[in-house]
């Protein structure tokens, strides 16, 4: 399926040495940059004379070299011509959407998406910007086609949706978007390295780097990966969503994240291998488990095609404990008695994180929309960590399941 290996692309990214030849790049912690010739200021300000064209960097909210270098790593990871990093995943998503849509425009989005994105599309954008969204089952091609309007500018979905772990037909959606003159935006937060949406035809890939890319649950960050024209548009002086709304990444954060990019593929491989082991075990024990690596998953055949086999099917799985009370009982036992992981939202951490989606990260959805998205009240999302021995984790899990009477 893929012509390109993101690990090779990352290794081929130009290495940025530190100021004194350090193996790590330096942190450019200046918010403003010195213009040596006063008559060059207007062109520098207009973006016509950047550091690569005889000018210099101007101001940190516009471009910062350290943030820019992290963007180069993100572009290499996702196989896009350019990328730029933001203060959060939500900043990346909202800036990407506002770049594609003006007041009166329309979006067709998957009904299975992160709760914050749902609220942005369902509540915020219609109220604040007159940009409306039709939420559909993104795996139902006829429903997506029916939802398209002349003013549709974007088709939006997540690879391995949060929390239902559905995998859309990204090449099919990309073709549909192109035929309609719209853009396909894919949130690839759950599947960096595993799936490369841009290689499959997506126009824009967004990330919450807060998750797997950061890997330590200590940094809130995001990224937008796209072609150069799109990234430049984000910085437009009159209409640039990043330039004017200002959710800029701090260069110190960019430096931190840049040091974690080289081991992202190793971490993902281990997250995925352990998630598969645990999903198989849970299925053998007769539990209702959702994991794209299982043959029972509705999109398993597509996942075998769109996921890179060497990195597995991602580090997140979901189980249905039957009710919210049972889910809470199980999570409490897993955390407080077995030390299997932590009851916390978010994912991609080195330890296991568990949350009941319906009452946490999907609580923005109405009861009807939760049901349409397939989120059961007892559904626990588990981001499988890689600390400890896997046999030890399996013993802890089995013990907790016995304690709460689920096996
Ligand atoms: N996209 C997905 C799929 C998410 O799960 C989240 C957060 O949970 C976000 C975006 C938002 O990211 P951030 O918290 O970095 O703004």
Q: Which fold does the CATH topology of the largest domain refer to? A: Aspartate Aminotransferase, domain 2
What strand order characterises the main sheet?
Answer: 1-7-6-5-4-2-3
Estimated share of beta-strand residues: 5-15%
- N/C terminus separation: 40 Å
Structure description:
With 407 residues, the protein is of the alpha/beta class. The chain folds into two domains: 257 residues, 3-Layer(aba) Sandwich (Aspartate Aminotransferase, domain 2), CATH 3.40.640; 141 residues, Alpha-Beta Complex (Aspartate Aminotransferase, domain 1), CATH 3.90.1150.10. Helix 1 packs antiparallel against helix 3, helix 3 runs parallel beside helix 10 and helix 13 crosses helix 15. The chain is globular. The mean pLDDT is 96. Pyridoxal-5'-phosphate binds next to helix 4 and helix 5. The site of pyridoxal-5'-phosphate has 15 residues, from helix 4 and helix 5.
Question: Which short descriptors sum up this protein?
Answer:
407 residues; alpha/beta; Aspartate Aminotransferase, domain 2; Aspartate Aminotransferase, domain 1; seven-stranded mixed sheet; five-stranded mixed sheet; 38% helix; binds pyridoxal-5'-phosphate
Short description:
With 407 residues, the protein is of the alpha/beta class. The chain has helices spanning 6-12, 41-45, 65-78, 89-100, 115-129, 141-147, 170-180, 228-234, 241-245, 251-258, 264-284, 300-306, 324-337, 367-373, 390-403; strands at 82-86, 106-110, 132-136, 152-158, 183-187, 204-208, 222-226, 288-290, 316-320, 342-343, 353-356, 379-383.
